[in-house]
Amino acid sequence: MAQNKTAFVLSAHSADFVWRAGGAIALHQKKGYAVTVVCLSYGERGESAKLWKQEGCTLERVKTERRKEAEAAARALNVHDIQFFDLGDYPLEIDREAKFRLVDVIRKVQPAFLMSHSHYDPYNTDHSHATRLLMECRMIAQAWGHNPGQKVLGAPQLYLYEPHQTEQMGWKPDVFLDITEVWDNKRAAIECMAGQEHLWDYYTNLAQNRGNHFRRNSGGQAGGRNARYAEGFQSVYPRTVDEL
Ligand SMILES: [Zn+2]
Q1: Cα–Cα distance for residue pair 244/70, rounded to 1 Å
Q2: Which branch of life, at top level (predicted)?
C-alpha cells in the first residue's frame, strides 16, 4: 500500500470524472492514494438536458441535483475529497482568481499525478479550457516566485482521460489501466448519473473494449492477465526512467 500518496482529477462539469476516470480513481483509492476531484462547474446549463425538460426547472435546482449526483458518485468511488468551484458552464470562464484558487488546491494536495480532459474538443470547448487551465496551474504551482514559502509542486504526470468521440478529439491513448477489480464501483458511480442514463451502457461497452486493448497489449492472448475492464489515458509529459 502506498502511504500518503495523492492524486488530482479535474472535471470541467460535475459528471465528467465519472465516465472518464472513475476506474482510475477507485483503483488508486483502493491502493491507498487520497484522490482529490475538482469540478469546475456542475454542467448545469450544458449537460443536464433531462432535468431541464422537467416543468418549472430552475438553474439553482439543476445545480443542486447535479451536485447530489456527483457527491453520490464520489462516494461510490471512495473519493477522498470532491470540491465544486461553481464557475458556470457553456461557457466555462476562468479568471485569475479561479486559477490561483486551483493552484492552492494543487499545492496543498501535492499529487503524484494529475488527470484532465483531452487537449482538443470541438464539441465542448469547456473540456479543452479545463485542460489548458490545469497545465497553466501546474506551471504556476511549480514557480518558486508564486507565494514564496509554500511548498512548490514537483513534476506530476498529466494523464488525459478518454473523451467521448476519440477520433474527433485527436486523443490517442498510450496507457491502459486495468480497472476490473473496481468495475463494480465505477458502474455504481455511473448509475448515480440519473440525468444521463443514455450514457450508462456506452461507457460500460467502452470499458470492455479498452479491456480488450489491455489484453492485446499485455500479451493476454499468450496467457497474460484477463483484464475485463480498462480505461485509456494519453500522457502529456515524458517519463523519466532507469530501465525500459
Ligand atoms: Zn463535460
Answers
A1: 39
A2: Bacteria
Count CA atoms within 13 Å of residue 178 on its CB side: 13
**Residues found in the chain:** 244
141 CA distance to ligand 1 middle (Å): 25
Residues 82, 120: Cα–Cα separation, whole Å: 25
46 Cα to the center of ligand 1, angstroms = 8
**Bond from prior residue into 156 cis (ω within 30 degrees of 0):** no
Residue in 151, 81, 80 with CA at minimum distance from that of residue 110: 151
Residue 100 alpha carbon to ligand 1 centre in Å: 22
Residue 99: in which H helix or E strand, if any?
helix 96-109
Q: How is residue 4 written as a grid cell?
A: 500518503
Residue 34: enclosing H or E segment and its boundaries?
Answer: strand 34-39
Question: In the numeric block, which cell numbers belong to residue 229?
Answer: 475492464
Q: Cβ distance 192 to 77 under 8 Å?
A: no
- 11, β-bridge pairs: 39
User: pLDDT tens-digit profile of 180-208?
Assistant: 999 999 999 999 998 788 899 999 999 99
Distance 148 CA to ligand 1 centre (A): 34
- At 17-42, the pLDDT tens digits run 999 999 999 999 999 999 999 999 99
Report the SS3 class of residue 178. Answer: strand
